[in-house]
């Protein structure tokens, strides 16, 4: 079984169980106020395996599986036997990293909660975009017509704006930092472990796409 499928299955099961068990939901959710005061640091990761509702769960897992399968295979080609371990490390560490800014901003707010795999999913999606920048992507109901290297900056710009506004009950900050972390992790790991220049490959693919 692939790491992508394993994470998807575990996330779906845990999320559905939490939908019908408020005690489990409360124990796993990211509650910055509790994290710091009771040293429940595990919530950085556990909150990535629960979701607000079925729509939230379905959207995250669909996005994750579509990109994750490709990124996991590429990691295997790039890093060999270490590929699966590094792919899993990317996903789990992204769950933590994407919530650090949230924790620092919200740790004194008792009423603030966050949940969902969106930050880690964003890390995987943007790693995929960086590996294959000309892949066609769509916005929600819009069919895949925009190349990834154009979609990426648009998404980041919108996400940064929404994160600054701080409305809507969605943790846009996690999306933003997860996306950036996915790219940084890929660049650093590829350079130091595989001696592969991801940035040069990214630029070259775009140049070929544009006929330059």
3D structure, described in words:
- This protein is mostly helical and 212 residues long.
- It has one domain: Rhomboid-like (Rhomboid-like fold, Up-down Bundle), CATH 1.20.1540.10.
- 70% of the residues lie in helices and 2% in strands.
- It is built from 11 helices and 2 strands, in the order H-H-H-H-H-H-H-H-E-E-H-H-H.
- The protein has helices at residues 3-19, 22-28, 32-38, 43-46, 54-79, 83-97, 100-106, 118-131, 148-165, 172-193, 198-209; strands at residues 136-137, 146-147.
- Strands 1-2 form a two-stranded antiparallel ribbon.
- The longest helix is centred in the first third of the chain and has 26 residues, at 54-79.
- It is globular and about 55 Å long.
- The relative contact order is 0.13.
- The model has no long low-confidence stretch (mean pLDDT 92).
Protein traits:
11 helices, two-stranded antiparallel sheet, globular, Rhomboid-like fold, 212 residues
Low-confidence stretches: none
| CATH class assignment | Mainly Alpha
* Most strands sheet: 2 strands, antiparallel
| Percent of residues in beta strands | under 5%
**Topology pattern, helix = H, strand = E:** HHHHHHHHEEHHH
The number of helices is 11
N-to-C CA distance: 41 Å
- Fill in the CATH topology: Rhomboid-like fold
Radius of gyration: 17 Å
Q: What's the overall geometry?
A: globular
Number of strands: 2
What structural category characterises the helix and strand content?
Answer: mainly alpha
CATH-wise, what's the superfamily?
Answer: Rhomboid-like
Helix content: over 70%
What is the arithmetic mean of pLDDT?
92
Count of distinct structural domains? 1
- Named at the architecture level, the CATH assignment is Up-down Bundle
In the sheet with the most strands, the strands line up as: 1-2
